[in-house]
Amino acid sequence: MKVGLVRHAGERQAVFVRKLTRKVSAMAKKNKPAAPSSAASQDKPATLKDLLNPDVVNKLKAQADQMKAEAEIQREEARKQAEAARKAEQKRLDNDFEYLLNNSGTDWKKYK
Length: 112
Hints:
The chain is mostly helical. The protein contains five helices and no strands.
């Protein structure tokens, strides 16, 4: 018999406990990344939408839509005003002889 193979009951128990703790720690390491993600999905913090009354949320959404519509109307009016200003400036320049002379073709011979 080999002396290294014979173990006492206490020694066997110690080896068993070491192997078991290694397996448990390895399993815990494998399960750690999965556990926080599932716990995080269950423990989501409450949002303001969850805390407010649905009627209040609907009123706020309606008010936000109304403000967006008003902003769109203002942008459209500003665009129309800018276009009108450009047209007025072009009309003024069309009546300015110096502007027309400077921007006309300089080849007057073809108009003889």
